[in-house]
Amino acid sequence: MNLDFSPVWADWRSLLNGALVTVEVTAMALLLGCFIGLLVGLGRLNRDRRLVYGLCTVYVTFIRGTPLLVQLFIWFFGLPQFGLLLPAMVCGVLGLGLYAGAYVSEIVRGAISSIHHGQHEAAIALGLSPWQSMRKVILPQALVRMIPPLGNEFIALIKNSALVSLLTIHDLMHEGQKIISVSYRSLEVYLVVALIYLALTSATAAVLAAYEKKLQRT
Q1: Mean of the pLDDT values across residues 143-147?
Q2: Which residues cross the membrane (predicted)?
Q3: Which of 8, 62, 141, 149 has an alpha carbon 20 to 30 Å from 102's alpha carbon atom?
């Protein structure tokens, strides 16, 4: 079998635009996921606040226990049943962001729990409030421990973003499927798409590795 990449090269601008959309969707979902993950992770650290802990636990349990594709379909196809019609991009970002947030929350909770409690007690003894202790003492130390698992989650998020093509978002996968529909060169297109995803995940891993080294030196 002869490989023919000419249809891919002829429509490389579409793949480039799709890759940019993938980066855009992933970046917005990443920011949302980190914000939610931080709040939920902190909420699951204190069991004395039962309502907050319970709500955060239900959220994490549901999101981690159901497929991402089903969650995206609920946003895109389910909400219109209640008269709420959101743009495909919004559904994709919300779905990916909430999905990532559940996993980021466990990373945050685990990293903070790994910091010796004496650090918190020492900060309180120095006159810091509980919030100041968390922000100035605990979180900076926990952040260094979060980077490796967060890197894995960020890379997984880039790969999972391919699912938003099913919501009619013109991301990298969607543009690749458009090329296949007219050229019928599925293997060639998927190989190029895979290489682009590999480039995106490799760049992300390199940036996070450099940032981790910088944090360790400070």
Answers
A1: 85
A2: 20-40, 52-78, 84-104, 189-211
A3: 141
